[in-house]
């Protein structure tokens, strides 16, 4: 495409006329969106096939990223930037009488993920393409993404997210590459003519996995990878029913419903596990389709023999959710390709690498043996055999570990432990931040670590600086480029050069103005969404992420209530005005998380309606927090709340996004916060609270006495009493369950225990904020050191240390 306005405008005009059946005078924002998306798609299609052909021709190794979630958000602006036409597209849009934002918003926010894990997968795809690594993401094309959240009378209501209601312009249906996936039935064993056992599957239910491909463009490089999402369909069209009374017809309809349900919706649980049969179906559907696709492509395109499969593909499994890929590859290699167990096992264990994303017990996946066996009989046989051989090898090769066999086994107590399967079947196991990996090695997976020390490694998470800085914060990006040149866009570590400006008064002034402007824009959005006006000069204190007890939104609310109580007692108190901004979805059946959402909203309405504190405190809960909402909030954040109970947040990635936009973190020594502090130094971050070892020590002794704090700290007593006695307007029940959880279940996430340190640290924040020059210096330091947290760095580490992958030049 010629990158000039006239050509682009002309193309848009043609698209409007030929594809949208409208004109430049009559078109809607939606028409303009489709026209521009179509231009971009046409423009990249040649590079897309070129990338694939070159990968094949050069027999280049490819990484396949298997994930139940890809939280991609909107792609239009990302693609326009990557293809170098953002500015002319914006001019075109304005020429047509629209605002760019209005047009970009026409794209559904693809929410095929819950939070951190799914967004990480999307950032990784962006970095892989931008660094020219051959890669394919494999996932599910859920008809319904993560629910849309409405807040009604303070409570979360979930609405279905039918994101495919309108045509999705980025995807291409590839029916010719559909494959069959089989469920249920029985396995008949006989002897094959090659003398080995043969396994035939009988009476299975067949499901067609139809791929929809989405192009993943690289930045400024003509490289285009694929995100392949599978949709579940019935294998052959239903015959015309003779009459509607036809029993078989109803039967068939039910059957069709069951099948299409497999790609029906995304399970809305983040860091928790729900052992539903349909979820297990989804997992197997994904891995079977993906592996059949890889094998087919290997046989069609590669000169290599199957023993060299791992030279063509590295497969990364995103948490244990796709770990059935391990027995599935064994099945395909043995039953279909007729390899022996040992040959197949060698290939498999040279191919798979597994990323762990959490140590929370409630997230550990274990499937009832009976469920797995009935749904996937052949897969179960293979897992059983992997387990037998693994336990045998422990018995003979590690006599000192004999008594640990029951705890290491893949199948125990009639449950299949997916983490054990992933550990045994992979050549690499990684955690997502230094502390997290150490906890895996020293605690959660200690015995496995002694067994396979070389398998364990750390890959600290990252985020794509192209979306999370360049795209969402154009004014800051220009300021950075004006100061240090554009090199940081290709090499984010070059952001470190900003340190030269740490004492440059005019630069600091401009930084401050950029933040102010971003806060103004967010204030407008807040007004539009909630009707609330906020003080643009107040501290924007932001806590956005999934709602979970361990993330401790409740601790934040306790701080707010503390300030409120202090101000009520002493209205003259000199506090810097604050705007507390929350955004969080709770899993629909996570009761306490939903109570916390109500609590935040009740506290918000009391504070926001109290004239005594009107000029000092505001509490905003933005509903339906998603990628697009994050993109508005992050550039305007002053203070980034990263206050999880130490040891619980594997990494966090919101912490990185906010840091990269200049926010200062208030946080615990948890996840990647530790690595942020190591870089910026104690003078540019606010660290407080228990350390992971301290939390662990309390846990080992059965917790701490939360009651003692209630009795000794009047600030805590005051707040807890208010929770209980109907101050918050729900006299009949108040927030008794939250209250009991803190006091009588001994505060499992140490909210009260960290309260004092948190309050004190907020006082330091407030003092620091008053000295605007110094505060802006902290902003600069945070941006300067954030280059390490680009997912480009993370991907380079995965590529060189795990996947042995080279860029395709
Ligand atoms: C969800 C279900 C089961 C197992 C793990 C999860 C999970 C973990 N979902 N999201 N995570 C988060 O992953 C992010 C990316 O690695 C981390 O930054 C974050 O700390 C995890 O909580």
Automatic annotation (TrEMBL):
GO terms for cellular component: cytoplasm. The modification N6-(pyridoxal phosphate)lysine is found at residue 657. The keyword Transferase applies. One of its GO terms (biological process) is glycogen catabolic process. It holds the Pfam family Phosphorylase. One of its GO terms (molecular function) is pyridoxal phosphate binding. Keywords: Carbohydrate metabolism, Glycogen metabolism, Glycosyltransferase, Pyridoxal phosphate, Transferase. Its EC number is 2.4.1.1. InterPro entries: Glycg_phsphrylas (IPR011833), Glyco_trans_35 (IPR000811), Pyridoxal_P_attach_site (IPR035090). The keyword Transferase applies. Its cofactor is pyridoxal 5'-phosphate. It catalyses: [(1->4)-alpha-D-glucosyl](n) + phosphate = [(1->4)-alpha-D-glucosyl](n-1) + alpha-D-glucose 1-phosphate. Belongs to the glycogen phosphorylase family. Phosphorylase is an important allosteric enzyme in carbohydrate metabolism. Enzymes from different sources differ in their regulatory mechanisms and in their natural substrates. However, all known phosphorylases share catalytic and structural properties. This is Alpha-1,4 glucan phosphorylase. It comes from Texcoconibacillus texcoconensis.
